[in-house]
Amino acid sequence: MKCMKDYIQLYLKERKIITYLTMKRIEEILPANEFMRVSRSYIIRKSAIKSINGNMLETTVGEEVMIGGTYTEAIRNEINEWLR
User: Fold this and answer.
1) With contact defined as beta carbons under 8 Å apart, do 43 and 23 qualify?
2) Residue 4 above 70 pLDDT?
3) What separation, in Å, do the N-terminal and C-terminal C-alpha atoms of the chain show?
4) What is the DSSP code (8-state) at residue 83?
5) pLDDT of the residue at 3
6) Greater model confidence, 52 or 13
């Protein structure tokens, strides 16, 4: 999902939806066990993460997303949980 002020682009398998929500609100709506915020502008489905290299995340559809500095520690913690 990409932020455009308070408009959110939701990327689904078959289509893209644009809706009027804040990132904070969409983060509250989405199940935390399935999605994670990786920057000010992106929330990603955990199962769509293909790889992480430094501060870049690659999705299963080949898109690269920069991990925001504020979210780096939370993402590292999440990865450590996955590896347990």
Assistant:
1) yes
2) no
3) 28
4) H
5) 56
6) 52
Write down the residue that tokens 């398998």 correspond to. Answer: 13
Give residue 82's identity as a one-letter amino acid code: W
- Express each pLDDT in 20-64 by its tens digit: 988 899 999 999 999 999 999 899 999 999 988 989 999 998 999
DSSP state of 68: P
The DSSP annotation for 16-36 comes to EEEEE--HHHHHHHS-TTTEE
Cα separation values, 18 from 49, 69, 70, Å: 22, 26, 25
Cα–Cα distance measured from residue 67 to residue 40, given in angstroms and rounded to the nearest whole number: 9
- C-beta pairs of 26-35 under 8 Å, 24+ apart in sequence: 26/1
* Helix, strand, coil % in the chain, rounded to nearest 5: 30, 35, 35
